[in-house]
């Protein structure tokens, strides 16, 4: 099992517990949010996901942070006009200047008194930046609950895969193995 790291690589920033930056963004879907089928456009949900993750990243890192990547965005159920959508976000993992933010999207159906349904999820990497847009160190996150600890460990696996994928693609391009002009 992977060890949890609760001090930064430079060891100079105190850790912050997951709960201090965890956030929920709630929004009622309107007719302007729909696609051709009349359900909510995926891009509307992705914007809310990015907004909620950005709020968490800013709160955790104590300053500006930019979206570096969004992956594994899953849409599990359609969202409808009138639904009350809750976007729940938390820091799953921190590196030197980057943070993985995990997001769950829940919908309370406007015409049903049933518990909220999970309609989506995503993982985003945010980089904390300084006033010149250059990466700056972030406080290490301190996972608190068993669930936080599991999410931390899973995020480390995704981080390893992202780095390996980027490295492999970079090497392939440098070898010039795939020819042809760009579209
Ligand atoms: C994200 C950004 C700040 C990274 O800058 P950089 O000069 O490449 O800096 P680094 O290579 O040191 O990366 C900084 C951190 O981000 C991570 N990172 C960078 N690109 C990433 C990507 N595509 N996916 C995941 N993580 C990424 C790095 O692993 C590093 O993490 P660490 O410090 O915890 O080890 C820069 O690419 C940027 O400004 N991008 C545009 C962001 C933006 O405008 N977003 C909104 C889109 S409209």
Describe the structure.
It is a single chain. The chain has 183 residues and is α+β, with helices and mostly antiparallel strands. The chain has one domain: Thiol Ester Dehydrase, Chain A (Roll), CATH 3.10.129.10. The chain contains two helices and seven strands, in the order ββαβββββα. The protein has helices at residues 42-61, 146-175, and strands at 16-17, 23-28, 65-75, 84-94, 98-108, 117-128, 141-142. Strands 2-4-5-6-3 form a five-stranded antiparallel beta sheet. Strands 1-7 form a two-stranded parallel ribbon. The longest helix has 30 residues, at 146-175. The chain is globular. The N and C termini lie far apart (44 Å). 31% of the residues are buried. The model is unreliable at 1-8 (pLDDT under 50). The structure holds coenzyme A. Residues 66-69, 95-98, 125, 127, 129, 133, 135, 162 line the site of coenzyme A (COA). Belongs to the acyl coenzyme A hydrolase family. One of its GO terms (molecular function) is hydrolase activity. Residues 19-132 form the HotDog ACOT-type domain. Pfam families: 4HBT. InterPro entries: Cytosol_ACT, HOTDOG_ACOT, HotDog_dom_sf, Thioestr_dom.
Write the SSE topology.
Blueprint: E1 16-17, E2 23-28, H1 42-61, E3 65-75, E4 84-94, E5 98-108, E6 117-128, E7 141-142, H2 146-175
Parallel strand pairs: 1-7
Antiparallel strand pairs: 2-4, 3-6, 4-5, 5-6
The chain binds coenzyme A.
Keywords: Hydrolase
EC number: 3.1.2.-
Organism: Streptomyces rimosus subsp. rimosus
């Amino acid at each position: 099992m992977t060890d949890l790291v609760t001090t930064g690589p430079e060891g100079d920033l105190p850790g912050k517990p997951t709960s201090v930056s965890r956030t929920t963004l709630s929004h009622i879907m309107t007719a302007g949010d729909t696609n051709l089928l009349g359900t909510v456009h995926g891009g509307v949900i992705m914007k809310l996901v990015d907004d909620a993750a950005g709020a968490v990243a800013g709160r955790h890192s104590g300053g500006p942070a930019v979206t570096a990547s969004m992956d594994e965005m899953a849409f599990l159920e359609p969202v409808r006009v009138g639904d009350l959508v809750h976007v729940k976000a938390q820091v799953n993992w921190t590196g030197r200047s980057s943070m993985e933010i995990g997001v769950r999207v829940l919908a309370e159906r406007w015409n049903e008194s049933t518990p909220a349904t999970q309609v989506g999820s995503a993982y985003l990497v945010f980089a904390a930046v300084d006033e010149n847009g250059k990466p700056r160190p972030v406080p290490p996150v301190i996972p608190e609950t068993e669930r936080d600890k599991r999410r931390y460990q899973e995020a480390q696996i995704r981080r390893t895969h992202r780095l390996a994928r980027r490295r492999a693609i970079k090497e392939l391009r440098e070898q010039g193995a795939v020819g042809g002009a760009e579209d």
